[in-house]
Design a protein that fits this description.
The complex is a heterodimer of chains A (about 300) and B (about 260). Chain A is about 70% helix and about 5% strand. Chain A starts with a strand and ends in a 6-residue tail after the last strand. Chain A has one domain. In chain A, strand 3 and strand 4 form a beta hairpin. Chain A has about 300 residues and is mostly helical. The radius of gyration of chain A is 20 Å and the shape is globular. Chain A has ten helices and five strands. Chain B is α+β, with helices and mostly antiparallel strands and about 260 residues long. Chain B has two domains: about 220 residues, Immunoglobulin-like, CATH 2.60.40; about 40 residues, no CATH class. In chain B, strands 2-13-12-4-7-9 form a six-stranded mixed beta sheet. In chain B, helix 6 packs across helix 7. The chains are: A mainly alpha (about 300), B alpha+beta (about 260). At the A-B interface, strand 1, helix 3, helix 5, helix 8 and helix 9 of A face strand 5, strand 6, helix 5, helix 6 and helix 7 of B.
Amino acid sequence: MQVYLPIAELSVNIFFLIGMGGAVGFLSGLFGVGGGFLLTPLLIFTGIPAPVAVASVTGQVVAASTSGALSYYRHGGIDFHLAMYLVFAGVIGAFFGVSTFSALRGAGQLDLVISLGYLIFLGSIGSLLVYEAVGTLVRRTKNKNRPLKVPGKHNWVHGLPLRVRFKRSNLYVSILPVLGIGLFIGFVGSLLGIGGGFILVPALVYILRVPGNVVIGTSLLQVLAIMAATTILHAVNSQTVDIVFALSLMVGGVTGAQFGAAIGQKMRGEQTRALLGFIVLAVALRFAYSLLVTPSDPFSITAITLGAG
Amino acid sequence: MQVPFAKFFIPLMGAILIFTLWVHASLAQKLVPKMSELEISINSTFTGENLTLFGTIEAHIGSDEKVEGPFDVIILVQGSAVDRVVREKSRQAGIWLNAQQVTFKGAPSYFHVLSSRPIEDINSAENLVELGIDLTAQIHEIEGPSEQVTIAYTNELKRLMQEVGTYGLSSHAVSFHSPTFYSANLELPADVPNGTYLATTFLFKDGTLIDRSAARFFVRTIGMEEFISDSARDFPLAYGIVCVLLALFTGWLGGVAFRR
């Protein structure tokens, strides 16, 4: 069944959209990530214009993180005090991200920056995940019961001024790195159409030493707030949010996530992390391919007029 | 290359007008064109539309001259003007990126020429350009680094538009069912650009333009789709907020429905 996307001005098969949302939702439930970093590239590779894909996926990420954040909220897994600082900085970052998005789109370099951005972030995070997970698996098979290296309670970040006490996270830390992380995630997330959870969680754990029981919930809340703000900013600034498109992705995504989460609980942590790492690396390589290999058609055409005609 | 629009266009139109009047006086035959639809509505299940353009060639009222062929018909269908950029990727520092570009201001969003014979057999290229039966003649302004580049990019524009079905030359699309009755079929693709379209029918006899007639038709989204694209354009803030509320609701519903 074909459905007409009023903003993209394209006619696509609705089952294809829901199916893709479902597949990515399944992975996001399985790995506990937002899924935007997989969905946006998949849509771009299948021919959806990059601006519409990026802007509409932000809506899908809001839906995906809402169900997750709600479930963590019920179990008390959110540090609202910390999230408040992150969101504040994140919204400012998102504002700059969306402005950059529009400027790049006008200059014709949006696709390039999106490809490079994905290559850098997915490439580094993917390598890290694979390296760590494979390392753990190798140690396990060698049966060396070496204790896992627990990150120390203090590092250079804890020496910075303007310290604030975050009771829920049991932290007393400077707000400067907190704001810095929020700003960065907001900027990157709105520019690339990703929630940024897969960058935010490691940053919170390794830089701020946020404990494991609140890190996912807090990160989900931050992603939810930033993506909500980004959706509105994209709607106002570039008018590329397609509500029909976003809704089809949401329906698939939210449903798929439930099945993914059910299966994810049966898998071992390092197995899922290794698998996620390989998928992330594959997407990064696909972007490298599009940047390095001679395109089949070097010419492209773009309408300058913003929004629907 | 800068083509001053008014300076070029107004004298051209004047020349065409005089030419048309002169032709009318000499040949008392006129065109009576019709279209199967005057409004193409795009709804959620729109997968393209077939438009039939047809008409007859009649003698002017009061004229006792016989209507005699053979005639040639060219139908030019063009969409509303949009600004477009054609960009070319080239390898720089090892990666492929958009390097050179040419801007086409006021280019028709849709450009199809339907004719009863190949247009170059009907009339000379210069005359066709003068009549506007040429994409370049319909573009208001072209901005590019050099004339050589803009010519090459204009060809790329045609090719890219042809690939998505918004540019085409169909040399045998107009068929004559009798010496004075013709019809042509125009297939509008699923992603046909919205806007006002102009269908101009040119009637030729022995390489001379006898008559021409223009008619408008509209392509627009209707119902829910029209409402959505209108609100996205006119009330972007409210539209964005509604998108977010919808996402929050879907997420909440998913969480509740599956009790995760």
